[in-house]
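#lab-general

N.A. 3:47 PM
ok so I finally got the sequence cleaned up, no stray characters, all 245 residues accounted for. can someone with queue access submit it? mine expired

B.Y. 3:52 PM
send it over

N.A. 3:53 PM
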Amino acid sequence: QELRATSAPTYNSAKPRLLEVFDEPLPEKVLGAFDECPVALVEDDGFSESTLQYFGVGYDRRNTRITFPLRDITGVLVGISGRTVTDQHPRYKVYDSEFAAYGLAARAQIRKSTILWNGDKVYQESCFRKLTSPIVIVEGFKACMRVWDAGYKNAVALLGTYLSEDQRWVLERVGAPVVLMLDRNPAGMKGMSEVGRKLSKSLQVQVVGEYFGEQPSDLCEVEVQEAITRAKSYARWALEESSNA
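B.Y. 4:20 PM
back already:
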């Protein structure tokens, strides 16, 4: 079955793709097909069911994947990302043909670069009041939920280590200070350097360069809090990194 494409305009700094209205957003009712608690996130990762419900995380029994809703900056559901629990490849899959099993037309995969996960809530909150608490930027879904559980409700995930122009637009539009807390591996450290360089031109940027474990989801809430309190300015962190290279 031919995949139905969503609109894909070229980047426009005045109206980036994050603000474009998709031709065919997903109906909210599709989340009902995944309305089952992903036990692994509760038993293995220690997330509460209330946190999973807040983020709309569910379980796709048909494809044995934990599901994460993807929303545009207005909060409209535009995609689903599924994480395998049985070592399927790829580990994370943005759904396309899977929708046919739930009575919907197959559709082209939404570009992750147009999604700032949990960014819809942060952006909309900033429309009503100036945000003074920092936006904590992480890589993935679980890291975002862990930081959110630790009390940093302005947590957002890039869904990778790369900062797109669309994501950058949102962060600069909000204007709040940011704290980078990407994974502590070569890709994450490189990402923090590049993301920090871009954002430091317009925003106050701090970096969490050291913490126990490889990613924020390895930490408990108290450890996340302690790590963030030790964050350094991007300029200081970058200078230290270059001297240690």
